[in-house]
Amino acid sequence: MDTRGYMLGFGNHFASEAKTGALPEGQNSPQRAPYGLYAEQISGSSFTAPKAANKRSWLYRLYPSVCHGRYVPYERASDFQSAPFCDSVVSPNQMRWGQRAILHKHRDFIDGIHTVAGNGNIDEWSGLAVHVYQANQSMADHGRYFYNADGELLIVPQQGSMVIRSEMGVIEAAPEEIVVIPRGIKFAVDLAEGCEDISGYICENYGSPLELPARGPIGANGLANERDFLTPEAAYEEKEGAMTMIAKFAGKLWSAPLRSSPLNVVAWHGNYAPYKYDLKNFNVINSVSFDHPDPSIFTVLTSPSVIEGTANLDFVVFPPRWMVAENTFRPPYFHRNIMSEFMGMINGEYDGKADGFVPGGYSLHNCMSAHGPDAKTYQKASNTELAPQYLDGGMAFMFESRYIMRPTAQALEGDNFQPDYLDVWDSLHKG
Fold first, then answer.
1. What is the Cα–Cα distance from 122 to 29, expressed in whole angstroms?
2. Could you give the CA distance from residue 36 to residue 299 in angstroms, rounded to a whole number?
3. What is the residue range of 391's domain?
4. For the stretch 385-395, what's the b/e string if a residue is b when 16 or more beta carbons lie within 10 angstroms of its beta carbon?
């Protein structure tokens, strides 16, 4: 069965059934669930977490999740790496990469993941990993499924549309949308009909689950609004035969044989489920007088850390918007930051760089590493006659963290690494 409906709202308790009457009435695990289904709970938080932070869903499925063969180490060579990242020396240098080369071998979503940088400790539920992905093959082609026990996945498509089949239902995602798959949820990624390849970015969040930022003085409205998040309605696969489950556990990939599809949830209820969000719905807050508000006003989702006000992960987006500030240098200003910033480009051009930062590319500016507009952008923006301007040249985003992001050796040795990135500031003259 393949239905592709959605339910509205962020963090709500949802209830959905793909077969009428499949949800039990009045209790979560009756002695016999409807249709002989198996009741199973998945918990994304400790049982004793405060009510507002408690995450769990009840699943009613054809087979329980224990029905799989023995897990063994994943055989294939993989560029999918995990914390701790110690295979290269991290420097204070600014770093930038262009778009990766087109795939010439068959790769599905899991085999197409390439780790760029990361930090933290999986065992302590802290930090993150940043990956890029490329795929030209659907996981359905070979009956492959995946779940990640190490963290939740924030997927940012950059090129091509995908179909994500999950335990809770089906999500379609295209560039300028994002998808979040919670820790432990099983899913598979396929290429959408007519799509030959897909690529994009992933942030693997080892820390607390992503949530909406507190709006503070902004008030009840603005930024990403709860009602614009979409959670899939129940759908299930009734497939039998030889299939494979791939798991990421304790930093390693594992595989186990399956006798049927693990996406066999006929009904579910709870608040622990995948969701998607259209970045075009982000309600930008900005200056209508002079100067820049801090870039935290562009935060879509945040994973708080134990230090108040510093995030394990902030996901920030820079969408099309009006620029009206008077007597102000309007592009991003020169800056040093205690947070570390990984930036990616979904489409178009970034207003802080004249060239070199391209869709599919990415940059890394670590803690206190200076960054800002290149020389061409600085000269142009310093001498432009200011008038209201609609900035519609593209959409960029940022993964920001309180932890230093350590680049992987494979990223630094890649053909798309730009060792001359620092040259963009060479022609700045004495003030």
1. 32
2. 45
3. 282-425
4. eeeeeebeebb
Is 338 within the bounds of a domain?
yes
Q: Would you say the pTM of this structure is higher than 0.90?
A: yes
Give me the count of residues in the chain: 431
- For the cut 60, the answer to whether the pLDDT of residue 278 exceeds it is yes
Co-location of 239 and 97 in the same domain: yes
All residues at 6 or more sequence positions from 303 whose CB lies less than 8 Å from its CB, including other chains: 128, 205, 207, 208, 209, 210, 211, 311, 312, 313, 314
Torsion of CA 7, 9, 140, 191, to 10 degrees: 110
Residue 3 has pLDDT above 70, yes or no: no
Q: Which of 292, 365, 371, 429 is catalytic?
A: 292
Same domain, 212 and 290: no
Q: Please list the residues that pair with 407 across neighbouring strands.
A: 117
Rounded CA gap, 286 and 10, in Å?
24
The answer to whether 264 and 1 are in contact (CB under 8 A) is no
* Structure confidence at residue 1 as a pLDDT band (50, 70, 90): very low
Q: What is the mean pLDDT of residues 169-196?
A: 98
CA separation for the pair 245, 241 (Å, rounded)? 13
Same domain, 186 and 217: yes
Residue with tokens 């065992």: 123
Q: Please give the tally of structural domains in the chain.
A: 2
Instruction: Specify which residues 409 forms β-bridges with.
Output: none
Q: Which of 324, 314, 162 is nearest to 224 (CA)?
A: 314
382 in the Ramachandran plot: left (φ > 0), alpha (ψ -120 to 50) or beta? alpha
Give 381-412 as a DSSP string.
Answer: HHHSPP--EEE-SEEEEEEEESSPPEEPHHHH
The CATH number covering residue 95 comes to: 2.60.120.10
Does 292 qualify as catalytic in the annotation?
yes
List, for residues 231-253, the tens digit of each pLDDT value.
999 999 999 999 999 999 999 99
Does 109 lie in the same domain as 215? yes
Q: Which helix (H) or strand (E) holds 376?
A: helix 375-383
Q: Collect all residues with Cβ–Cβ distance below 8 Å to 56 and sequence separation of at least 6.
A: 41, 42, 43, 44, 45, 270, 271, 272
Q: With the C-alpha atoms ordered 116, 120, 123, 124, is the resulting torsion angle positive or negative? A: negative
